[in-house]
Specification:
Purple Acid Phosphatase, chain A, domain 2; alpha/beta; 7-stranded mixed beta sheet; 6-stranded mixed beta sheet; 23% helix; single chain
């Protein structure tokens, strides 16, 4: 007999169909399915994040002291205020991250200043900015405009936290010692946090970031308030310290806690050249010179705005300072401790 695919079997006795579930039961079933889907998605996302690895090498750009007062007649004219031009250099370098070294908007960091001066230039890097907090930020109550502008990127309220960039561990500290709870001295909450954080750190290369420089030959000079935190950097073999505050670029060789050369000391860069002003103080302007000796640096530029570029490799780093209108005026490389 040939088989007809369109034929149907003869009808059998009627089969009783189950009653449809009640509305309440349907809602419970749908809710259970949604819960399972959410849990599975969360687990997959967690596994994915755990499996992600930091890149082996990253390029970061750093600068501080950037946006000018919106009432400054030079704003937008490219005469004295160079925030836009310097940020053009930073954007053109296409960094993996931008490390802000504080004092983002002068003189009073109003919301209008952030919107009209900082944002058109440096704001192009906001989504990759890791901002240390400077003294200008606190000219507004609790640094509110700074926190409003950067949002979650501004970090915890006390201003100290850590992040991994590539294979490097980076700690951000608050050098506004009269503002941060407990100050900056040995035994302060911030100092204890730094000790604990670095003790847990297993990265070969480490960098610290804060606003007021431990060593400086600028108008304010070296900041002794940061001595205890700096000593901890030495004990834990931190390689680099980034800071700003001074209106110049200055690179120190590796130094010990007394400002003396030390092969495994911390190398500090001062990069207060983000656009607001550059300044070489006269002898009478830098009052610290009458009380303390200068700490020799390896390179200093008081004439040009610019940005510091750091290539962070797994066991070494290199640097270039891009001066506005001059190109690279300082460069070098070295292995991590």
């Amino acid at each position: 007999m040939s088989y007809d695919p369109l034929s149907r079997p003869p009808a059998g006795p009627p089969v009783a169909m189950p009653a449809p579930p009640s509305p309440q039961r349907r809602r419970r079933i749908i809710g259970a399915i949604v819960t399972v889907v959410v849990i599975v998605a969360a687990v997959l996302l967690l596994l994915r994040s755990c499996g992600e690895e930091q890149p082996q090498s990253v390029t970061v750009v750093a600068a501080g002291d950037m946006g000018c007062d919106p009432k400054d007649p030079a704003v937008g004219k490219g005469v004295d205020c160079q925030a836009q031009a310097v940020s053009d250099i930073a954007v053109g370098l296409q960094p993996y991250a931008f490390i802000g070294l504080g004092d983002y908007q002068y003189e009073i960091p109003t919301a209008d200043g952030y919107a009209s001066v900082y944002d058109p230039g440096w704001g192009r890097l906001r989504n990759i900015t890791y901002p240390a907090i400077g003294n200008q930020e606190y000219k507004v109550h609790e640094a509110n405009t700074f926190r409003d502008y950067f949002g979650e990127r501004s970090g915890p309220e006390q201003g100290y936290w850590a992040v991994d960039l590539g294979q490097w561990h980076v700690v951000f500290l608050n050098s506004n010692c009269t503002v941060v709870t407990g100050g900056c001295a040995a035994g302060s909450p911030q100092h204890k946090w730094l000790q604990e954080n670095l003790a847990r750190n297993s990265a070969k290369c480490t960098m610290a970031v804060w606003h007021h420089p431990r060593w400086s030959n600028g108008i304010a000079g070296s900041d002794a308030r940061m001595a205890a935190l700096y000593e901890t950097l030495l004990i834990e073999d931190v390689d680099i310290l980034l800071s700003a505050h001074e209106a110049d670029y200055e690179r120190f060789g590796p130094l010990d806690g007394g400002g003396r050369p030390l092969t495994v000391g911390v190398r500090q860069f001062v990069v207060g050249t983000g656009g607001q002003v550059t300044y070489d103080p006269e002898l009478g302007d830098a009052q610290w010179r009458a009380k303390a000796k200068a700490v020799p640096s390896e390179f200093r530029d008081t004439d040009h705005h610019g940005v510091l570029q750091l290539q962070l490799d797994p066991d070494s780093y290199s640097w270039q300072f891009f001066a506005l209108g001059q190109g690279v005026v300082d460069a070098g490389s070295t292995a991590c401790h």
